[in-house]
Amino acid sequence: MTNQKLKLWAGIGVATLLASSGAMADEQKDRQHGDRMTSGAHGGEGGEGYGGEGGERHGGEAGAAFSYFADGGEGGEGGEGGGSISPVESDGTYVAMLQMMQGHLMAARELIKAGKAADGRPHLTHPWVEVYPMAEAGLESRGQAQLAGHLKALAENAGRVTSWGDVSQQFQAAWVAIQKAEKSVEGRSAASVSKVVLSLTKQAVLEYDEALENGRFVAAHEYQDGRGFVLSARDHLDKHQAILNKQNSEARRDAGKALADMLKAWPTAVPPEQPVIPVANLYAAQARLELALAPYLY
After folding, report:
1. Nearest alpha-carbon partner for 155 in 104, 231, 200, 211
2. 98: closest CA among 286, 234, 229, 188?
3. pTM of the model
4. Distance between alpha carbon 75 and the CA centroid of its chain, in Å?
5. Residues contacting 196, CB < 8 A, separation 6+
6. 151 vs 17, residue with greater confidence
């Protein structure tokens, strides 16, 4: 535990030092292109067939975001040895994927309800075309294959949505189905909850980074995905605060504050003209969140 905390502190120190020079952002951007895992179901004809706008550029979810589940098991769920990032074998990976689906839907709902249906439509397709192909085996192994129909229907109807009333019923059906799929996992631990939160926030930072070019946002949908993932992470942390408080209430409070600090990078559903928080600082903020959650992890 001591060694892990020292590594985290060292990482945060380096991140803070490099933030002012921008070196960390460049290094992380180079690394993320190797880490991002492209879903074969997205892009090309498939991407354009499910609502189009903004979907083609997105590279799928990141394998790097699930790396937390490959490091020493899941605190009682995945054994003591090296864990698995398979959603069949790892409850944590499975739950993180479902939470990513909800993050995409949060982005869609916020935009459509704000009268920005054209911006929100692509996010209705992302759970189906980006996340479902990764989660499919995990869903089927837990008897949750029916989620596919709800996500597919939402994606196929996305291009016709002009107001919230056009999609509210389908949206709610998909949302409830995701919640049902998550309830198939029993025996949550503070470690697994923490790793889900870290997976979501790591992916959020990667999305934020991907949305930027020369210090300006050039891909609004990537920014919006990141916002959705952080909101989903916050909900997951809040929903399981009793589990976290039972083990270490101070760590839970610190994690909540660190997550709130991260969310400041996404002040609105539509990207600001310039980043509120430099991307290097956001990587450092995510490292501070990991440090706050360390008592549950090591």
Report:
1. 104
2. 229
3. 0.82
4. 21
5. 92, 95, 96, 99, 233, 236
6. 151
**What is the spatial distance between Cα 213 and Cα 217, in angstroms, rounded to a whole number?**
6
Choose between 248 and 43: higher pLDDT.
Answer: 248
What would the pLDDT profile of 253-292 be if each residue is shown by its tens digit?
A: 999 999 999 999 999 999 999 999 999 999 999 999 999 9
Tokens for 260?
């709130």
- What contacts 282, CB < 8 A, 6 or more positions away? 205, 208, 209, 262, 265
Single-letter amino acid code for the residue at 116: K
Strands 216-217 and 212-213: antiparallel
What mean pLDDT do residues 34-52 have?
37
Q: Which residue has the tokens 């430099």?
A: 278
Q: Which amino acid is at 228?
A: G
Take residue 92 and report the two structure tokens written for it.
């944590």
* Tokens matching residue 197: 């939160």
Give just the sign of the alpha carbon dihedral 100, 102, 106, 107. Answer: positive
